[in-house]
Structure formats: C-alpha cells, structure tokens
C-alpha cells in the first residue's frame, strides 16, 4: 500500500514547491494511472516513492516503510519491494536477456537454484522465452521494455512503478506493454503507471490521478485525462 | 561477486587496459627513482666501508712490539677490521702509485712508520674512534679524513631525503592518476550502478565487484610494471657495469632486490587498485 499525506516537496536551492499538500492513497492490488503535464510533479512522486529524494513535509508510506524516517542504509530493503520500469528500458548492454533479469535477483542475494527456477518463469510470462540468449541491442523497443518488466517483476515486488513505459514505443507495442502490465496487476501486483498516452489511459478504464502544478486536480475512473487536451 | 569483478576487467577491455597501463607506468617511475636512490645509497655505503683511519706506530717500538698493538686496537669499539702494514710494505705501496719507481731508489723504508689501517663499523663515529686510537699507548699519530667521512654522511642523508620525498610525491601523483583513470572507467558504468541501486542492491554488494576489479587491475599493473622494471634495470646496469664507470662503483644485481621490490609493487598495486576501485564509485552510491 502507498499513502501520501500532506506531502510537500521543494528541491534544495529552489524557491518553488513542486508538490503542494498532496494526498494520495493506492491500495494493494490497484492499477493507477498518474497523469499530468510536464512539470506537474509526476517524476517527483516517483523519486519520493523510490527513496531517491526526501519530502520537505508530510508523510509517505510505501509497503510498510515510513519514508519520512527511513535511514539510507534501509533503502535497499524498500527498493526490493518495488519494481521500477523506465521509458529508456535501462538494460545492461553486455548482458543477455536472461542475465539482465537474473541480475536483479543476484544483487538481492537470491540463491542460484531460485534464480534458475524463477527467471524462465518470468520470461515466459512476458513472452520472451525464445529471446533469452539475445543481447538487448538485438531486440525491438517493445521486447526491450518487456525485458525491463520481467526484471521489475522477478523479485515479486508488491508495487510496480512504470515511468512513461511506452514513451519510446509505437501505439501497437504500447498497447501490448500496457496489457502486460494489466495482466501483472490481475495477478495481484499493485501497478502505478505514469504516462502521457491519452488513448491508452482511456482504453483501460482504470483509476486516473491527474496532477497540475504540484496539485492533485482529479482522481477517478471517469477518464478525466481523456477530456483534457 | 568475484566473477562480477573479473567480468568487469575483461568486458571493459580498453578502459581496463588504460587503468593497468597507468598503474604499471606509475609504479615503474616510482620504482626507478627508488632503485636509483637504493643504488646511490649502496655505492656510498661501499665507499664508507672503504674509509679508513691510519694509526702510525711510535718509531721507538720495534716491529714485533708494534704488532702487539693490534690487540689493543681491536678492543676499541667501532673497529671492524685492523691491518698491520710494515714500513717496507708502506714504501712499496707508495711506489706502486707511480710508474717511474727509480725516483724512490734512494729512499729508505726507515723514513716511514709502521702503521695500522683501521676500518670502521660506523663512519659517523670516526672522530670518536680517532680520539680513542690516539689514546692507545704506542700510537704516535692518527690520520683520519673526518671531513671526507662527514661529506659521505651528508651526501647519503641528502640522497635518502630526496629519494623519500620523490617517492612520496610520485606515490601521491600515482594515486591521483590511478584513481582518476579508474573513475573514468567507472563513469561509463554509472547506469549499471543506478540499475543495481534501483533493484535494491546494497552499497557493499555494488562496491565489491569494483574493488575486485581494481584489485585485479592493480595486480596486473604491478606484474607488468615489475617485469618492465626488471628488463630496464638489467639493460641499464649492464651498460653501466660494462663501461668505465663499472670500475668505479658496484651496482646492486636485480636478484638481490627483486623480492622486496616485487612485494612493494604488489602491495602498492593491490592497495591503489582496490582503494581506487572502491573510491571511484563512491559518488554513484549516494542515490
């Protein structure tokens, strides 16, 4: 579960609040789109949830971690409960698909036996079994993003945060990726997607939270984002 | 994790090559200065060892009585070796310095004194030993080149200090260069580190492969530097010893210094590599 209460954020050395008294709760198992124009504070929310930055005020809880008081040395524990997906995939170029996914398990100290069992399962889930020995540069953008999803999923996180996951993909591949995220959500994982893709957001009919200038302007399933242009 | 470090060395071939080359070059420069210093020190010590005091025996003593003084001289502290030289031997030695000995045909050995050549353990105590010899009954006069001895000591001290300063300066420069090279090599891997952070790796886990990588590069750099040092040293000392200079002084054979040199090379290489590897990624761990 994610909960932000009266969260205020101002970056050091600046004079403007990028988030103003923000309240937001995401329940376990929920699928949520976070939308808003550039500079509205979406990326800051992701940075706050992953512990990259600390809020200037308010309370944040993510998967039972209190991010207001969390110590730097405990951040790895928080991050092991999250799966993060980026627009630019962020795969390791000289590792194969299998190795990229296994890498996420290795760095958290998973035993080899478990890695050998879990990685093929996740690769199958994202439809990449046949590509497991290929390098990222040998894959299409959509396939690379599926590797990133497999990597985010492999440690069974409670929450998947996808930051513009379809930003580099054509509409067909974007839909494919979003359906995959929806499938993961249906299997019980909470999913938070930050996106600009109006059609995609409306196509799924999920909860949509809109931000504007650091303020939450709408929260519902009525396609608010779709009516804005 | 050790495999990760090994993978890092080989999968980033050019950057690893640059780091290893810098480590080898720095060690080579540092080692060369150290070897010059060690050899100068050794040459001066050889010269010191050859430094001697001449103790002239009173003319009133017979040669047999003069020989009896040896025991008293040997008991003096700081005396390493004592050699008795008769008047006749002294004259022969004197003549031997000249090509035309006919000039000395009329000189009788009796104009010279029987003498002792006294070699010292510690040249810095030459003045004290000279005084002690002057107090030995039967010794008429003592000739000691205290000024030259002090000159040797000064030169040795200056060489030691200069060598030490150069080595320290070069070590600092080398550390800086190596750390920067490894930092540059690591810069391109910041994305990899960011991914590791994002999936929940702790700092120790992230740092360890880089430390291992630095350590491997340090050992390789030290090994290459040592081999080059060996070749260069043997080449240069061979040239010097085969020239006229070879008659004047003696340079240390590489075999006598190779073990401590190798150990120092490895220690510096490992320390700098591991430390440099660990330090280089420090900034990327703060996210």
Question: Concise description?
Answer:
Chain A has 229 residues and is an alpha/beta fold. In chain A, 34% of the residues lie in helices and 24% in strands.
Encode the helix/strand succession of chain B as letters: HHEHEHEHEHHHHH
**Share of helical residues of chain A:** 25-40%
Note poorly predicted spans of chain A.
none
Structure summary, number of beta strands of chain B: 4
Distance from first to last alpha carbon of chain A:
31 Å
Biggest sheet, spatial arrangement of strands of chain A: 6-7-8-3-9-10
Largest sheet of chain A: 6 strands, mixed
What is the mean pLDDT of chain A? 91
SSE pattern of chain A: EEEHEEHEHHHEHEHEEH
Number of domains of chain B: 2
* Protein chains sharing the most extensive interface: A-B, 20 and 15 residues
Describe this structure in words.
The complex is a heterodimer of chains A (229) and B (287). Chain A has 229 residues and is of the alpha/beta class. Chain A has helices at residues 42-49, 75-79, 97-106, 112-125, 141-153, 171-186, 198-204, 224-227; strands spanning 2-9, 19-26, 31-35, 57-62, 65-66, 82-85, 159-163, 190-194, 207-212, 215-220. Chain A has a domain at 92-156. Helices cover 34% and strands 24% of the residues of chain A. In chain A, strands 6-7-8-3-9-10 form a 6-stranded mixed sheet, sandwiched between helices. Chain A is globular. Chain B folds into 2 domains: 2-47 and 151-286, no CATH class; 52-144, Alpha-Beta Plaits, CATH 3.30.70. Chain B has 287 residues and is of the alpha+beta class. Chain B is elongated, with a radius of gyration of 30 Å. Chain B has helices at 2-11, 13-50, 63-74, 87-96, 126-134, 146-187, 190-198, 203-242, 245-248, 254-280, and strands at residues 52-57, 79-85, 115-120, 139-144.
């Amino acid at each position: 579960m994610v909960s932000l209460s009266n969260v205020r954020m101002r970056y050091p050395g600046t004079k403007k609040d990028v988030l103003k008294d923000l309240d937001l709760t995401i329940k376990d198992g929920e699928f949520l789109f976070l939308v808003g124009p550039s500079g509205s504070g979406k990326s800051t929310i992701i940075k706050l949830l992953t512990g990259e930055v600390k809020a200037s005020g308010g309370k944040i809880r993510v998967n039972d971690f209190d991010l207001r008081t969390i110590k730097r040395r405990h951040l790895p524990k928080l991050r092991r409960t999250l799966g993060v997906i980026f627009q630019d995939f962020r795969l390791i170029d000289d590792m194969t698909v299998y190795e990229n996914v296994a890498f996420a398990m290795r760095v958290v100290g998973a035993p080899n036996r478990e890695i050998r069992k879990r990685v093929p399962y996740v690769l199958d889930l994202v439809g990449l079994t046949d590509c497991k020995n290929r390098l990222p540069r040998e894959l299409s953008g959509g396939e690379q993003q599926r590797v990133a999803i497999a990597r985010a999923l492999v440690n069974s996180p409670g929450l998947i945060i996808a930051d513009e996951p379809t930003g580099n993909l054509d509409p067909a591949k974007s839909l494919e990726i979003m359906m995959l995220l929806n499938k993961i959500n249906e299997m019980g994982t909470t999913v938070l997607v930050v996106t600009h893709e109006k059609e995609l957001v409306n196509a799924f009919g999920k909860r949509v939270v809109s931000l504007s200038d650091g303020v939450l302007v709408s929260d519902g399933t009525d396609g608010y984002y779709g009516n804005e242009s | 994790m050790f495999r990760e470090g090994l993978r890092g060395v080989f999968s980033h071939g050019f950057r690893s090559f640059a780091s290893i080359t810098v480590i080898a070059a720095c060690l080579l420069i540092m080692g060369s200065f150290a070897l010059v210093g060690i050899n100068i020190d050794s040459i001066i010590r050889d010269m010191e060892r050859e430094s001697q005091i001449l103790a002239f025996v009173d003319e009133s003593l017979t040669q047999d009585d003069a020989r009896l003084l040896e025991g008293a001289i040997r008991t003096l502290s700081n005396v390493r070796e004592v050699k008795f030289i008769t008047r006749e031997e002294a004259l022969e030695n004197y003549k031997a310095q000249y090509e035309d000995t006919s000039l000395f045909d009329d000189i009788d050995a009796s104009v010279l004194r029987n003498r002792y050549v006294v070699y010292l353990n510690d040249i810095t105590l030459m003045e004290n030993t000279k005084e002690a010899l002057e107090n030995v009954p039967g010794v008429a006069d003592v000739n000691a080149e205290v000024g030259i001895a002090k000159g040797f000591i000064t030169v040795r001290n200056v060489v030691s200090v200069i060598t030490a300063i150069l080595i320290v300066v070069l070590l600092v420069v080398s550390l800086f260069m190596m750390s920067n090279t490894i930092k540059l090599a690591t810069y391109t891997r910041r994305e990899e580190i960011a991914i590791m952070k994002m999936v929940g790796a702790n700092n120790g886990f992230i740092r360890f492969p880089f430390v291992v990588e630095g350590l491997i590069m340090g050992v390789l750099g030290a090994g290459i530097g040592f081999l080059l040092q060996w070749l260069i040293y043997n080449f240069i000392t061979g040239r010097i010893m085969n020239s006229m200079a070879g008659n004047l002084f003696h340079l240390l054979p590489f075999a006598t210094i190779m073990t401590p040199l190798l150990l120092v090379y490895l220690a510096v290489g490992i320390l700098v590599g591991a430390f440099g590897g660990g330090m280089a990624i420090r900034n990327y761990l703060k996210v």
